[in-house]
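BUG: 3D viewer hangs when loading the predicted structure for this chain

Environment: internal workstation, default settings.
Expected: structure renders.
Actual: progress bar stalls at 90%.

Input used:
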Amino acid sequence: MALLGIGSICQAQSIITEWSGRPNRNILVLEYDDTFLFLARHHGDHRDFGGNTEPGLFVHSKRHNQWRRILKISTKDGIFGSSNSAAPEDQKRMMLASVGWNFTYLVKQDYADMPLRTSGSLVFPSEIVYLPDTDQYRFGFMTDWDVRSARTYLFFSRSNLLEAFEKSKK
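Structure tokens produced before the viewer hung:
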């Protein structure tokens, strides 16, 4: 299993992360399990006392008591959706979206930058599931739309994430 450490950036086979301090503004808890806390940070508002923040996707390891920022997730075995659908009923539903998206281009890339971006928004996982049979996390994007073709799924190894935290201790 390849693990490359460059400064504070760790690249494992399925995920690229960097060391991070604890994000404390403009955050949203996405998932909290027995090992990790996944958190999203959005732009915020320039009128806030502290101004805007840089968007990002973060993970905290309980065991290591450390934060890392998730920079990229492998597209291997990913499923890539768009806001267009061939099914008329689904397309009607998709017309309610304020922005369109098409993540099918990711099939040609090794990694997807986090967070995903549309023409006018940031996209954080709406569903995070640990799959113990494969030791993978599945990040689901646009899963709150009840349209199968709209959903994007990315997978990364929990072991690779743990390796990134171990590597950052050294």
